[in-house]
Amino acid sequence: MRIVLSLLLIFSVSPFVGCSSLPESTREMEARAEYGKLIPSEPKAEMPRRKKQRVEKIYMGGRLLSSGDWFVGGRLLLVVNEPDWIFDDSALKKIESK
Length: 98
Fold this sequence. Notes:
With 98 residues, the protein is an alpha+beta fold. It has one domain. Helix content is 32%, strand content 26%. A two-stranded antiparallel ribbon has the order 1-6. The radius of gyration is 37 Å and the shape is elongated.
């Protein structure tokens, strides 16, 4: 029992004693890597965007056709705008204007 209590005491005190006696860090690796130094940025190329397809849903009710057949009805999907890519790059606008 005495051994268990002494081990428990040692393990409970060791986090406070072990690392607290180390000297303050000089951060030499960060100084050598020059993390704080600003890098000149290149002109950012515009990424093309995707324009979504616009679809309207239409419900057609049941009706009697001219041939005498009964049309039960159904849903019809009507494409209003086709999907497309949008390019807003200034370099492309200069080429297109020439």
